[in-house]
């Protein structure tokens, strides 16, 4: 795995995230990260597809004025298969959010996060890997930043499954949080059926079919209204116990 040392980046020794194709490293530059991509086969075009996926997703979200929702590629090397990207300053990892809520994340905060994740999924038409390391929340920019986009959509990947697990692990155990977790888990199951057999179609008030994440978002907002009333959303709460996202590796590189 070739790291972009020669390009002027100081890169952490160990990845802060890795899967079967991607490894993500911190750098000494604020809010700048390196992803190294391992093609399944040499020169198979998958690295170009990987960059195209990122840029295509970013373009779709920029069309909706969601500039804080997606990283921006600022450098790349086709021969060594790496990209450098930046994220908007001020994001918090889910781990940092958990630390700022010692009694667990409450239902209204989950509502804020899930509403924005579903919005991203509607416009990107892809299935990101919603692991702990792969999204940041951005209260000031009113968005979430999703990372770890694969060059090709994995038909077996259903991000709501992972999201439901995260809610179960890190919620405050309240009735409202449990209802939200149950909704996300069941919506993931419905989405699978919808993908496989085009089942579970529903219509909106105008009689138009709502499929996939758009339908789930509409139903989620109705669910929140039943739980919380008309004022179903509030600002995401992050206490002073949590500092904006800066990995230990990146902080060490900046001090070195």
User: Which shape, going by the Cα principal axes?
Assistant: globular
Order of strands across the biggest sheet?
A: 1-2-3-5-4
Contiguous runs where pLDDT drops below 50 for at least 5 residues: 197-210, 241-247
Helix content: 25-40%
Any idea how many domains?
A: 2
Tally of alpha and pi helices: 7
Going by helix content, strand content and strand pairing, the class is alpha+beta
Describe this structure in words.
The chain is α+β, with helices and mostly antiparallel strands and 256 residues long. It has two domains: 5-89, Phosphorylase Kinase, domain 1 (2-Layer Sandwich); 98-228, no CATH class. The protein has seven helices and ten strands. The strands form three sheets. A five-stranded antiparallel β-sheet has the order 1-2-3-5-4. Strands 6-7-8 form a three-stranded antiparallel β-sheet. Strands 9-10 form a two-stranded antiparallel sheet. The longest helix has 23 residues, at 175-197. The two termini are 24 Å apart. Mean pLDDT is 78; it is low at 197-210 and 241-247.
């Amino acid at each position: 795995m070739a790291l972009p040392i020669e390009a002027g980046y100081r890169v952490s020794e160990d990845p802060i995230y890795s899967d079967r194709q991607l490894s993500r490293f911190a750098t000494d530059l604020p809010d700048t990260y390196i992803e190294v991509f391992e093609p399944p086969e040499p020169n198979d075009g998958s690295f170009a597809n990987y960059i195209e996926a990122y840029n295509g997703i970013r373009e779709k979200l920029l069309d909706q004025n969601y500039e804080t929702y997606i990283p921006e590629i600022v450098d790349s090397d086709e021969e060594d298969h790496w990209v450098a990207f930046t994220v908007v300053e001020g994001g918090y990892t889910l781990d940092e959010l958990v630390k700022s809520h010692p009694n667990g994340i409450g239902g209204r905060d989950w509502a804020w996060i899930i509403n924005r994740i579903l919005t991203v999924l509607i416009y990107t038409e892809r299935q990101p890997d919603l692991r702990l390391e792969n999204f940041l929340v951005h209260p000031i920019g009113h968005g979430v930043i999703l990372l770890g986009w694969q060059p090709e959509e994995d038909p077996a990947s259903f991000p709501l499954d992972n999201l439901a697990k995260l809610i179960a692990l890190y919620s405050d155990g309240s009735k409202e949080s449990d209802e939200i977790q149950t909704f996300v888990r069941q919506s993931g199951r419905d989405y699978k059926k919808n993908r496989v057999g085009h089942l579970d179609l529903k219509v909106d008030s105008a009689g138009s079919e709502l499929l996939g994440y758009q339908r789930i978002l509409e139903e989620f907002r109705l669910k929140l209204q039943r739980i919380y009333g008309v004022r179903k959303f509030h600002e995401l709460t992050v206490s002073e116990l949590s500092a904006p996202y800066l990995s230990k590796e990146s902080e060490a590189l900046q001090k070195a």
